[in-house]
Design brief:
Order of helices and strands of chain A: HEHEHHEEEEEHEEEEHE
Oligomer: homodimer
Structural class of chain A: alpha+beta
Shape of chain A: globular
Radius of gyration of chain A: 19 Å
Helix content of chain A: 25-40%
Number of domains of chain A: 2
Largest interface: A-B, 64 and 64 residues
Mean pLDDT of chain A: 92
Largest sheet of chain A: 4 strands, mixed
CATH class of the largest domain in chain A: Alpha Beta
Number of helices of chain A: 6
CATH superfamily of the largest domain in chain A: CofE-like
Distance between the termini of chain A: 36 Å
């Protein structure tokens, strides 16, 4: 995948014949970011004093630290060599979603898409136009979590489906109100897709069949809790 | 499901013929808790002063608040009517995993299993003895997350499989070390299972086929980050 490549076209070429009504696609943000040119050569970055100090203390590349800070609107925690920040999109994650890679020789940083919901919408539009039915698209990345080890995939961008399955107002089989049961289904779909994707197999997209998604346009931004409602700002 | 019911026997009766080598089962903690008798009638609970005050301020049932406090080893946040605490198992979650229900007439609280890994191991042992091959078991619950809306299923208990897929030490297709890539696969499997489970359909277990699990006995406790390594204690 190179900047400017036609990701939707490549997905369609690979998978148009495999899609049926009801399917959805989970696409890793990595190919989206690359196609959208969200790559930065580390050698082009001039680190700030803060980046230099943090990098020196924790044995990091100061240019990578600088990029993380530039991609952040707010630092949530900065300790033990880890930066947890709120990205321009509002996502709270480690390193502002900046991945380092050797893609193409020199050290390159892959940033998150500028607007993952717009990326997902663009892909969903192109796919629907080609196959003739709606195929929701989830653009995912793998995030760490507070209190839990390991990383899981979450949904950054969502198009064509409600990111939640909302059970509020319904009753469980015993007649009890399900008060807080709003499942983050798009996150669960992203997590499920990772099981089929692996991390080193170069699988950029996963087809999901059989999940009863409902149309919706709230997008992945709806999965981000507003800081004023969060107990861990 | 009633206290003392033979959950393994019921799962085998329903699903033994559906299992093949390589499969695994995700079981909701709710049926495990019920079979293990982890039910408490709210009317039997005498709330403490703290529970009374918090409940009065936020319009909660003081007996439910009391149960949450009793199931906690540490309160992480207690605000806006929400209690985020560290359970006896070390899990950080809302309400210490205590669910309220009308099961059987009066108001009943369903607590987390005392030892979800032991529950998972017990089920896995019984299933392997009956079908003749190993079937890993994940016992799940749905948790909220910091910074993200909606809840997702996570793995509380894990038996018979490595809860992680560890890519550390491997290289991505571009030759770059995957430094922090340890996927919490058991959590992803729990999240995936929820997509098939729903919340009101009374589906207590999901068969997962095609995931290349590796044997391991670290258990669900390995998914809990020790507080001393956490940036959000």
């Amino acid at each position: 995948m190179q900047p400017g490549d036609d990701l939707a076209g490549m997905l369609l070429e690979a998978a148009a014949d495999l899609l049926e009504p009801g399917d959805l696609l989970v696409v890793t943000h990595k190919v989206v970011s690359k196609a959208e040119g969200r790559l930065v050569a580390l050698e082009s970055i001039q680190p700030s004093d803060l980046a230099l100090r943090f990098a020196r203390r924790w044995g990091k590349d100061p240019r990578a630290v600088e990029l993380v800070l530039r991609e952040s609107q707010e630092v949530v925690r900065m300790a033990r060599g880890v930066i947890i920040s709120r990205t321009r999109h509002g996502q709270v994650c480690a390193n502002a979603g900046v991945d380092l890679s050797n893609a193409g020789g020199g050290q390159v940083a892959c940033l998150l898409p500028l607007d993952p919901d717009a990326s997902a919408r663009g892909l969903a539009r192109r796919i629907q136009a080609a196959v003739g039915f709606a195929v929701p698209v989830v653009v995912c990345d793998s995030f760490g979590r507070a209190w839990r080890e390991g990383i899981v995939n979450v949904a950054l961008g969502v198009a064509g489906m409600d990111p939640f399955t909302d059970y509020r107002g319904t009753r469980d089989p015993h007649g009890y109100d399900l008060r807080v049961s709003r499942m983050a289904s798009a996150d669960a779909l992203a997590a499920a897709a990772e099981l089929a994707m692996g991390k080193v197999d170069g699988v950029p997209a996963v087809r999901v069949r059989g999940f009863p998604w409902r149309p919706g346009e709230a997008g992945g931004v709806a999965l981000v809790r507003p800081p004023e409602n969060d107990l861990f700002p």
